[in-house]
Amino acid sequence: MDPSVNKKIIDGNSIARSILQNLVQEIAKFKPLQPGLTFIRAGNDPPSVFYVNRKQKVAAEIGIRSAVHLFEEKVSERQLLQTIDKCNNDPSTNGILVQMPLPPHLNQQFILNSIHPHKDVDGFNAVNLGKLCKEDDSGFIPCTPAGIFELLKASNVKVEGAHIVILGRSLIVGKPLALLLCQNKPSANATVTLCHSKTHGLESILKSADIIVAAIGKALFLKGNMVKDNVVVIDVGITRVNDPAHPKGYSILGDVDFNQVIQHASKITPVPGGVGPMTITMLMKNTFQAFKNQLSLKS
Ligand code: NAP
Questions:
Q1: Could you tell me the distance, in angstroms and rounded to a whole number, from the CA of residue 167 to the centre of ligand 1?
Q2: Tens of pLDDT along 215-246?
Q3: Within a domain: 197
Q4: Sheet holding 65-71, edge to edge
């Protein structure tokens, strides 16, 4: 690849690796104690199976114990709540992650709110989201927004004063990211425009963005002619498309038409290898934080 193009790429794998290496050392200082992370997965949605396996693998690599509770697709809310309750009361579990999406008959918010806020390492419990809203740093920040924030920081992208356009207002990416970026702190202080499918005038909004975060789940949506020169682009999207030429039979595409947008961008994340590794890394960071918090509560 042309070295000038290469310089524009924000390498999420490498940034994640350096955070994980640091975590390995920090976690080792507590031996023989180890942080514990429990996953709860319902059904056999292939991406969910993949993500839980991947998160368990990274946890094992850095010294975090993990366990999984598996349920059938038709699991009742009561069964899940009972398991969460057990995990809430189990001192060997420091963090609990309910893998999304849950089967549609389950009330997602109700289940997420049943996780004890001290063990809510995914940060989706109403208490932790409330703390984010109130700029109270004692809560857990959802992993993908936290990962994006770290990517921007590690790439020396100036957030303060920037106009950041976020495409997508979901509870796991867009909304918490908007809250994080507009916090009244020197590391944040951005002017955020949060867009969704009903936004009018998206083209002119995008053209005025210094930073664009695309999180809509529509492959190759953002084109080169939709951005201004020197924009920073963070691509959160993950869409699987059939690809017989690929050994796995599918390819992963982001929300950004990378080959077009990189011509205009000053920095850009690839898919894969951008936001994805950071999401997992932030989960590990939150789990270690939960472990330390719970140890200090005991002493
Ligand atoms: P989601 O819950 O489906 O939300 C999509 C959002 O995009 C909605 O707010 C929707 O608007 C908005 N949207 C859809 N089409 C739009 C358009 N044409 N213009 C503007 N906004 C539009 O998705 P999500 O869970 O946030 O995930 C988004 C993508 O990120 C997916 O591909 C997902 O796989 C990926 N993801 C990646 C990571 C990672 O670690 N890399 C983590 C989480 C998610 P309405 O609200 O009006 O419907």
A1: 7
A2: 999 999 999 999 999 999 999 999 999 999 99
A3: yes
A4: 65-71, 36-42, 95-98
Domain co-membership, 155 together with 227? yes
Residue 203 domain-assigned (yes or no): yes
Q: How far apart are CA 192 and CA 196, in angstroms?
A: 13
Q: Which atom of ligand 1 is nearest to the CA of 275?
A: 41
> Does the C-beta of 275 come closer than 6 Å to ligand 1?
yes
Residue 55 has a CB neighbour count (10 Å cut-off) of 23
pLDDT for position 280? 98
pTM: 0.96
Give me the CATH number covering residue 182.
3.40.50.720
| CATH number of the domain enclosing 45 | 3.40.50.10860
Domain interval for residue 75: 30-116
What DSSP character marks residue 171?
T
pLDDT tops 80 at residue 105: yes
Count of C-beta atoms within a 10 Å radius of residue 186 = 8
Q: How far, in Å, from the CA of 66 to the mean position of ligand 1? A: 28
Check whether residue 47 and residue 151 sit in a common domain. Answer: no
Q: Grade residue 99 by pLDDT with cuts at 50, 70 and 90.
A: very high
Is the beta carbon of 170 within 6 A of some atom in ligand 1?
yes
Q: Is the CB of 217 under 6 A from ligand 1?
A: yes
Q: 46 vs 43, 77, 99, CA distance in Å?
A: 9, 21, 12
> How far, in Å, is the centroid of ligand 1 from the Cα of 90?
34
pLDDT tier at 153 (50, 70, 90 boundaries)? very high
Q: Specify the 3-state DSSP secondary structure of 167.
A: strand
Domain total for the chain? 2
At 43, is the pLDDT very low, low, confident or very high (cuts 50, 70, 90)?
very high
pLDDT at 65 over 70: yes
Establish whether residue 173 lines the binding site of ligand 1, counting it when its CB lies within 6 angstroms of any ligand atom: yes
